[in-house]
Amino acid sequence: MKQTILKIHPDDNVLVALTDIPAGDVITYGQDTFTTIQMIPAKHKVAIHEIKAGDSIIMYGVLVGKAQFDIASGGLLTTSNIKHAANGMSTESKHTSWQQPNVSEWQGRTFKGYHRSDGSVGTANYWLVIPMVFCENRNLEVLQEALVKPLGYGRKKTYETKALQLINKVKAGGGIEEVLFTEIESGDGLDREAKVFPNVDGIKFLTHTGGCGGIRQDAETLCGLLAGYITHPNVAGATVLSLGCQNAQVSILQREIEKRSPMFDKPLYILDQQTIGKESDIIDQALRKTMAGLIHANQYTRQPAPLSKLTIGLECGGSDGFSGISANPAIGYTSDLLVALGGSVILAEFPELCGVEQNLIDRCVEEEDANRFVSLVRTYAQRAEEVGSGFDMNPSPGNIKDGLITDAIKSAGAAKKGGTSPVVDVLDYPEKVVKPGLNLLCTPGNDVESTTAEVGSGANVVLFTTGLGTPTGNPITPVVKIATNTNLYNKMSDIIDLNTGTIIEGEETIEQAGERILDYVVKVASGEVEVCAVRHGQDDFIPWKRGVSL
Description:
The chain starts with a strand and ends in a 15-residue tail after the last helix. The mean pLDDT is 93. It contains 17 helices and 22 strands. It is 31% helix and 18% strand. The strands form 6 sheets. The chain has a 7-stranded parallel sheet with strand order 18-19-17-16-20-21-22, with helices on both faces. Strands 12-11-13-14 form a 4-stranded parallel sheet, sandwiched between helices. A 3-stranded antiparallel sheet has the order 1-2-5, with no helix packed on it. Strand 13, helix 5 and strand 14 form a beta-alpha-beta unit. The radius of gyration is 25 Å and the shape is globular. It is an alpha/beta fold.
């Protein structure tokens, strides 16, 4: 019989509904029996015993809220009767001992990747075109139009095909009813030109809105992020366009590149428009040098590499009440497997670690990392409060509708992505991952900004869990979308790659799902599987702007 309700941790005083539970149902869980006094929607929480006003709400074994009013046994937890609350932080304790998972079946496994001279291995092989400042975005658009389709990297034209059919109906005199309800054919609509450079996965254009007009620190941070992409193992080289007078100077970019890759030897073509002069001249030079760079990039081929060369970014977006009990702990187990194999993982989104900071502090191998984590979290929280916000305002309307009614509830489930291994390093945005193991990276909770940051820090695969559905991708790193529930997986199968609703339905354990995900990661890293975000050309790239505009 399918389980209808779940207690996540033995210390919890609430249960999670795995399916809609009608009012008046008698629920028995372990030694406890109660009657629901109202309908409990799936993914939402119900009180096991009476909870008095001011009492703690415990989930995942940690404080996630306080009752604002008395909540009867069998009562539904809502934004009206509980409020956000979380435990404080202390760096006094350490619990870095770790029971590693059995990885015997993975020992000796390899993936086929692109080996770079610095020892890193890419899961893809891209050429980048990057502006130092938003003033150059139009030139990138000109280059993109000139290069992408002729080089054989054109996108599917399915919707253009559909639009043309509708246009033809209008031209033939069709009215509103015909346009709205007449069936139209989809066709495959593919651009069928063969790739000119078969070993190059694509040429990507990282347009952005930064580089000038803000504080100098934002310009320097942007240069660090761009350097992270240029030195990334998934990138063979880059063409950089500079206006010349912007805050994000080329010299800063070069310094950031050297910081990340002291022996940097990839082709890097830097063009300054104010030095060159005419737009036609800078475009001409960019075309020639980009073509030369692509010839170089095409010399790389996939070769076997150990799984220790994988760096996985851990991300969630459009989370729901099942995220913390299916997809997130599943990729947490994947994380533990990879760490045990000598690989690296990145847990980010600091606003979504609110309430579970102590667990991560206790897992820090070095005291200086614990102290840095506390400092970054407190500084970030203070800045949010200074502008009239705070971590407690993190849950989105969609989160709340699907059961994540306080930030601490959301965070306790989000942190499960990081598994159980020790924390080996704490990084501030946009620093590079240099240590194998679990790394904490300070980023926003915004999933595109955070995914952008994780890739900039070295993630060559991203695991992205979602309960509500989101199309987020990245220009250079495959983003694997993982549904927390089967309904979502079936409903949005065109943008979701894997399903962990099997855990909710009792068909699979967390460990089995985590192993299945790692097996899929190996296939993605080897180029054997194209994830949905790559297939749709979902090239989301949003740098984190921490300062004000001046």
